[in-house]
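Running this now, will post back.
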Amino acid sequence: MELQDIVHTYNPFASQFLRVSSMIATGVPNISLNLKSTPNFDVRYCNKPTSSEIAVLLPGDGSDHIAHRDIILKTLSGPLRRINELHSSYDPLQYVLLFPRGDIGYHPSIHYRNSTNKYVTCREYYTYRFMVRQDDENVILRSKRLFHQFIVDSYAKQKTLRLNFIRNNQSKLRAELYQGIHDSILEGDTNADNLGRRIILPSSFTGGSRRHMHQLYQDAMAIVRCFGKPSLFITFTCNPKWDEIMRELFPHQTPNDHPDLVCRVFRQKLKCLKKDLLYYHVLGKVIAYIDVIEFQKRGLHCHMCLILDKSHRLPTADTYDDVVCSEIPNKITESKLFQIISNFNTHGPCGITFPNSPCMIDGKCSKKYPKSFVDTSSIDKYEICSSVQSIKYLYKYCYKGHDRTTASVSINNVDETTQFIDARYISAIESLWRTLDFEMQDHSPAVYRLDLHLPNQHIILFQSNTDINNILTKNPGTKLTECFKINQLDTDARHYIYADFVRYYVWKPLSKQ
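Update: finished.
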């Protein structure tokens, strides 16, 4: 009642819009969203969530254009009003308990302090909102599942802004083949507006583009081609009961109530792990690696593939025992380690006792458990990453794509859809990770991407108001054509294949040569 009195007294919107209590009295339809498992779904990223959590579903692959979101308010006088999610009043209207006094939320016109021409971005604003400060009673961080909803909603705003920026700044930029522009001039058409296509969503757009993941996979395979097959495949999983997390929680909170803290601690732990592996060489000298952050609807973890120096690789089953321990510790002498392994690193229970376990397919465990206890290690081509057959599997597993789901909507228990809705699934922990702008993947060494095209079939970018004749005369050469030129002038260049060219020659972007 005290909180309600504050809202009614100080919230400027309380006297303008209809309250939920009034709507409930008149009857509200029962709307439910049901996540489905379709027969042809990909279990790698279309699996159902294994925990109860708040998430946002973005139609398509998360990069589809949405003209507006259906956020509609009903005033006391009767008419309906649509509000944009970027309106300064959206946050206090949508989250009354977080902003009981009607404090304005994010809008695109927030200036930087002491700056009149630079504006705070949507991501920066919500990063500020999610910070923990000394002696700061941040209600948002103490609102549990409402905090989760606020997180995913804010990330949906960020994606909308990014997509709109790309589209609004590509309206005049076009692309066409060199040969197509040349043919147009021969036909007498010199209007650039009639040529080419608008630039589509770039492959660098993360969080939805499948081309982005495919490109990263090709980069990883280029590393394999140069340095050889991976030696170690490591999965580093976040433990929400880490002391660094537990001691920083607010009273009466669980780690699930404080996802921002979980993200920050996991990232610091991951940086420490990479330092041990890459600089201190605790598992051997690493000459190349890749790592990818994943969420998979059940938690936060990182997959890593390490390529070791030839002198540090593991050639036999006996050498595996030096870096891999696949046994349950002694319950008495190593009680703490036994507890950790028992809680987090054992599979099951499944089988006859628990036939409905997620791993059970046709009455058998898909993970091939239970397995027989053995006294010595052995090489299994499916369970180590030293075999040639496993290389593509490992890297495709790391770059398999973002979480997705299929869902149907029903009103009053009546299915309102004739087919499933295919959508991008973004959990609160992933939304927060991306809002904080933490890295999603990393690899070393750097990979330089080279052009490959048929004669006069390379892509040219130009503005719609550009003279076509100038497009052809100022057209710079591509990496491939410049490689051919260097081969004509430099006899040493003829010893290198095109894929290895950047190891001996430098492409200068300013002069395009």
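The chain is about 30% helix and 15% strand. More later if anyone needs it.
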